[in-house]
Design goal:
By secondary structure, the chain is an alpha/beta fold. It has helices spanning 3-27, 89-104, 122-131, 146-150, 181-192, and strands at 47-49, 60-62, 68-70, 78-84, 110-116, 140-141, 158-162, 168-173. Helices cover 35% and strands 19% of the residues.
């Protein structure tokens, strides 16, 4: 072979090695994208991961005394945003499990943010949580359905899992088993990333 052909082959081989190195770094040895989240456990059904991790809508949450809080204020923590209503049976059933989940995961890195979409006052919503074994959670209200519209909620409960950068990991339209050890382990993995 001539020197120019050898040079071209060497360049192509080097490019192939570089390409494989980059792809291996992005895909990883298990065939999954590095940085990709583990598949959620069956106990989390109907939770589905987002295909693309887009930033969640900027929306104001109405808290105690009408004080507004933005989801951006939770950046740096994994957020479990739960839209619920007092007239929604599955919502009410999952509230104690959400409160228990908040207790087992570090509050500095993980927060459950319940939002009452039943148009109650914040004081009424908080009293409802207390009376249903979830008083350790601090609820917000969605009195004008802005949060429901922003997240495209058509039914309740709806829960959106948000990463530390404010991007949606996935959502559940329905009530997953928040108390299962597999669910807790999955969420702990999100927190420890």
């Amino acid at each position: 072979m001539t020197k120019p052909r050898l040079l071209v082959l060497a360049i192509l081989a080097g490019a192939a090695v570089l390409l494989l190195t980059v792809l291996y770094g992005k895909i990883g040895p298990n065939g999954k994208a590095s940085g990709a989240f583990a598949e959620p456990p069956a106990a989390m059904a109907p939770f589905k991961q987002s295909q693309t991790r887009a930033a969640v809508p900027t929306v104001a949450l109405s808290g105690a005394g009408g004080a507004l809080k933005s989801l951006n204020e939770y950046k740096g923590r994994v957020v479990l945003l739960n839209l619920w209503a007092p007239w929604c049976g599955p919502c009410v059933k999952e509230l104690p499990a959400l409160a228990a989940l908040q207790k087992v995961l570090p509050a500095a890195q993980f927060v459950v943010v319940p939002v009452d979409a039943g148009r109650e006052s914040q004081a009424e919503a908080q009293a409802f949580l207390v009376s249903h074994g979830a008083g350790s959670l601090k609820t917000f209200v969605d009195s004008n359905a802005a949060v429901m519209r922003a997240f495209g909620a058509v039914g309740l409960p709806m829960t959106i899992l948000i990463d530390k950068d404010g991007k949606e990991i996935g959502r559940a339209e329905g009530a997953p088993d928040w108390s299962s050890p597999e669910t807790v382990a999955y969420l702990r993995g999100m927190v420890e990333r």
